[in-house]
Amino acid sequence: MSALPDLLHFDCPRCNQPVDERLYGPCRECRDALSALGGQGGGEVVTERFEPRMHVVPNQVATKE
Ligand SMILES: [Zn+2]
User: Fold this and answer.
1) Is residue 26 part of a domain?
2) Number of domains in the chain
3) CA of 54 relative to ligand 1 center, distance in Å
């Protein structure tokens, strides 16, 4: 008999390391890393949206003679 709760054996979806956790999800290390990144418990991963800046070239003023 074991007092331990049933653990799931799976590969961490983040680092692909075999882990034993009660719930499927990132392993402890990854949760720590995620929470460190998020700073608020690591609920959602905030993805930065990369928007390249378009440099608008102003119309060239007709050169006067
Ligand atoms: Zn992991």
Assistant:
1) yes
2) 1
3) 38
- Residue 24 belongs to domain spanning: 8-38
Alpha carbon distance 18, 7 (integer Å): 12
State in Å: Cα 22 to ligand 1 middle: 14
Nearest to 17 by CA among 4, 33, 28: 28
Tell me, in angstroms, the distance from the centre of ligand 1 to residue 51's CA: 30
DSSP 42: S
> What's the residue count for the chain?
65
CA of 10 to the centre of ligand 1 (A): 10
pLDDT tens over the chain, length 65 residues? 666 678 999 999 999 999 999 889 999 999 999 888 876 544 555 566 766 777 776 777 777 76
pTM reported for the whole predicted model: 0.47
Tokens of 16: 């692909």
